[in-house]
Fold this sequence. Notes:
The protein is an alpha+beta fold. It is built from 7 helices and 26 strands.
Amino acid sequence: MPIARLITASILFAAALSAQSLTGSWDCTVTVNGNEIPFRMEFSANGDAVKGSFFNGEERVPSTGGQLREGALRLNFEQYASRLEATLTEGGLEGRYGRELRWYPFRAHHAAAPAPASGPEGAPDIGGLWEIPTKSPKGESAWRFIVRQKGAEVSAAILRVDGDTGALDGRWRDGKFVLSHFSGARPNLLEVTPAADGTLKIVQNGHTQLVALRPASARAQGFGEPADPFHHTGVKDASAPLAFSFPDLEGRTVSLADARFRDKVVVLAISGSWCPNCHDEAPFLEELYRQYRAQGLEVVALSFEEADQLKTLARLRAFIRQYGIDYTVLVPGEPGQLAEKLPQAENLNSWPTTFFLGRDGRVRGVHAGFAGRASGEFHTETKHEITELVERLLVESSSAAAR
Length: 403
């Protein structure tokens, strides 16, 4: 065989071997503030082109492009303005994940066969709803701790007024449940130990000490309840329209006074492409918009972005592509300018927060945060309550207009 052909064949063989070695499920870790956080990923390769996915429970968080060349892997996650850079070796993958000025060391190896869900013996039952007493900077008295269990395997989420932590997955081992989450965002590690008094002792990210109680026990001991998302944020004057006037992604000013919003019900969402709970909410807002726009619904997202992102809005554009967003997106400024840009709001400190405006522009409801899929029944309940409110506003407003 001619030397040129031999070299070409060797290169093609090496590329195919690399792709074959990468494709499949992987057990991964990132190291954040000294904590090694385990999670899973899946990769697939077609020649040099590579796709990868993080997971939030069973929900995929896909890459937006990537390649594998001569054992060097690079995956882009433009919706997070981040990337994965790693080297493929016989032992696995090693590299880093993140973006400039914020990198997490990354390691991975091919996933091992899952252990039986029912073992090991002796895993206590902690499934169900718990509450974590707290005094948060946002005025919360408690968070919910939602646990789903199958034998030794547990999936859980902490639900705060902003939303949840994403699905924390793990198992019972050495006298405690060890749970973790990383989906390209929200790195989190929990060690959960059942105590003799019926509580759960929780160590978060190696140092924060928390205690979880059953709701009945929390009430009996006088602890406050979790915040009601419909009563966390308000407006100073409910009789006045909630005015906004901000540029869109092309720099054109859009205002509530524009013809497109006249006599419409408007869902005004405070958002940001940096905000994981806003990523949870966006698909639902798009679903709501598609279902009710013909009946007079408009959805507007006010996306507050960091200074470096305001230069190109690259991450926000990727966020819009990721979720197929067809509703209006405006860019008022940076997150720290929230109170300045919406002075009519009171106690506006949750990302996201959603305002519901009647056809007259007045606020008829405000919902703080968004419970994502990891919140289980609270996710379902949140979507149901918001949908009911929108339907009620559409019917009421239509009737009022007819009169």
